[in-house]
Every structure is written in structure tokens, then in C-alpha cells.
Amino acid sequence: MKASLLEPTALEWKETLQQTPHDMYHEPAYVELDAKLYGGTPTAFHYAEDGRRLLMPLILREVPDSGLRDALSPYGYPGPIATGDTAFWARACAAMIDTLRADGIVTAFVRMHPLLDAPLETLGRFGTLVRHGETVSMDLTVSLEQMWRQTRSDHRNHINRARRDGTRVVFDDWDRLDEWVAVYHDNMRRVGASSYYFFTSEHLAALHDAVGDRMHLAVALEGDDVVGGNTFFEHDGIATGYVSSTRRAPRRYADELLYDEVRRWCKSRGDTVFHLGGGKGGSDDSLFSYKAGFSPGRHAFHTWRLVADPDAYRLLMAERRPGTDPGEKSGTFPPYR
Questions:
Q1: pTM to 2 decimals?
Q2: Where does residue 133 fall: left (phi above 0), alpha (psi -120 to 50 degrees), or beta otherwise?
Q3: pLDDT, position 247
Q4: For 8-66, how does the pLDDT look when each residue is reduced to its tens digit (9 = 90+)?
Q5: pLDDT reading at 306 higher than 90
Q6: What does the alpha-carbon distance between residue 300 and residue 282 come to, in Å, rounded to a whole number?
Q7: Distance CA 120, CA 301 (A)
Q8: How far apart are CA 10 and CA 135, in angstroms?
């Protein structure tokens, strides 16, 4: 068996992706660019044994004033991917903890992929699994008529109204990126988003350059004005929303029209599912309710919290969160940050 932390250029990373079902979040180019936003180092834990493999993309960050590091998964829904039975997963998880600890990495915070299978019971033996809620997906294998019937009546009415008002959607006109990013940033300021979520035109363009025609831009136009847009990925039949936003105005329904046009476009290209994600932090909130109005497809969303070095973890907790129970891992993790 072999366990290691890989650089994005490692051949083992590429070979694992060739052998294992995965999504865009597992691609080294995606992890590398996301790590720049976090100010961290891109890597992936890799475990190989008798032709079977496990891969877990991670971003390593310095724990200030400690000489230690911790890890988190890239933005989105990466999660570990593997070929092998639950016994193999268990050996890989044990090796992952040993490898992280040996490299001075105290904890790892991992967002699981709701559509890709993983043995949750096995993962729970090596860390804490927290179920946050559900995500929504659209089944693109059903007919357009059935997709429309599955759409909540208020969404259908708004989509029809947007079309009657002349709102239209165009795909992959990347010359419109700056116009849409301005709309997106206006919304991020309105909701008080953290600095991480202010994705720049430069970042989005670099991501598009890195992954090519697996990333797309859909923009909604009123006349010649960009009033909304979606960026999304296509990967092995899975379409996944990345960032979306529309300019707020009374009786403007560009956002709902975008969801409808994107799913139709992806279906026409042979994709089988469009994953919309869930509410903020996976919660059952108004955002989740909005997405749920497009489809009955539901998937449980979990995060996985690992403590690789219990002694260092307890020390950090005692120094930075005195009086906090170090055994409580279901809230903000790691709590010493």
C-alpha cells in the first residue's frame, strides 16, 4: 500500500481520476485555482493498494502562530472518491489520518459530494459526520414536458412572464463576463458576503481557461443589458452550478428563466443531471425552498470533520478556545480558528 499527499501535477492524481467517477471539484486545475482564493496550498491525499485507489482533494492552510497546518476541501462538493469496498475505505481513512498527522496537519474539514457514493458509516468511524440538510438536483433524462410539470407553478409563471417580456439567455459569450461579474458583486455586497465569495473576472476566466469547454457562462439579457447570469460545469454527465446572480428589480424573473434555459441546454448536450446545490450552509432555508421548486430530486449533504493530531488539537483549543469542549465537533470546524 502507498499513502501520500500529491501535488496537482502528480501522475497518480490524473490516473485516479481516469479510474474513478468524480466531478469538477476533484480536478487538479480546479483545486489549484481555488487554493489561491484561500491563500493555501493545493494537494490531494492519495491511497493505493492492489490497483485500488482513494483520492481526497485538499487545501492546506497555516494555523497562525503555531507552526501547524490544517486542511479543508475546495469550494463546492468534492468529497473522497475511491474504487474499493468498505474495508479498503477503512484502511485508506486510517492511512489518511496518519499521513496528515505526520505532515503537521491537525484537522481536515471535508464537504461530501451528495451525488457520489461514499460509505458514510465507515467515514464516521474515523471522524465526525454532520448532516446539514439536502441538496436539489434536476433529472435531465426525463422529457422536457415532465421537467416542466415538476416545476412549481410560481416558477413556471415567472419563467413564462420573463419570456413574454423579452428576456433571453445566451450561452458562452465570454465577452459578457465583466458585465455579469459587476451584477454578481452588487449582490454580494447587498447580502454582506465574505471576501472569498467576490470571485473576480480574472479568477473565472482563469478557471475557464484551465478546464475549457467543461465550464460555461449563461447570461440573461434585457435588450442588450446583462441582468443576470450563471456559471456552471459539465463533467461526465453531471452539470453543476458554480456561481449565479441576477440584478434585483420588481417583476424581474431572469433567475428562474436562467435555471430553465440551462437545464434545457444541458439536456440537449446529453447531461443526465443538473445539481443545483442546497441552502446556505446546507440548511433548509429560503434558498433551498427556491431551488426545491424546480425539481423533486433530493440528496443528503454531509460534512466530514477529522482530527488527525488529537494532542495538537487539544492544545490549540486550550490556547484559543478555553472552556470549549474539544469533543464537540458539530459546529464551526475547526473551532480554534
A1: 0.93
A2: left
A3: 86
A4: 999 999 999 999 999 999 999 999 999 999 999 999 999 999 999 999 999 999 999 99
A5: yes
A6: 9
A7: 11
A8: 32
Cell numbers representing residue 147 in the block = 421537467
Q: Is the dihedral of CA 292, 219, 216, 244 positive or negative?
A: negative
Q: Are 91 and 285 in contact (CB under 8 A)?
A: no
Digit-coded pLDDT (tens) for 179-191: 999 999 998 898 8
Cell triple for 62 = 497555516
| Burial of residue 308 (number of CB atoms within 10 Å: 0-12, 13-18, 19+) | buried
Cell output for 157: 409563471
- Can you tell me the distance from the alpha carbon of 159 to that of 136, in angstroms, rounded to the nearest whole number? 19
Cβ atoms of 305 and 127 closer than 8 Å: yes
Tell me which amino acid residue 32 is. Answer: E
Residue 196: band (very low, low, confident or very high) from pLDDT cuts 50, 70, 90? confident
Please report the DSSP string for 242-265 in residue order.
EEEEE---TT--HHHHHHHHHHHH
For helices 153-164 and 254-268, the axis angle rounded to 10 degrees is 90
Amino acid at 304: W
- Name the one residue in this structure whose C-alpha cell is 454582506: 192
Length of the chain: 337
End-to-end CA distance of the chain: 34
Residue 92 has pLDDT above 90, yes or no: yes
Phi-psi region of 277 (alpha: psi -120 to 50; beta: other; left: phi over 0): left
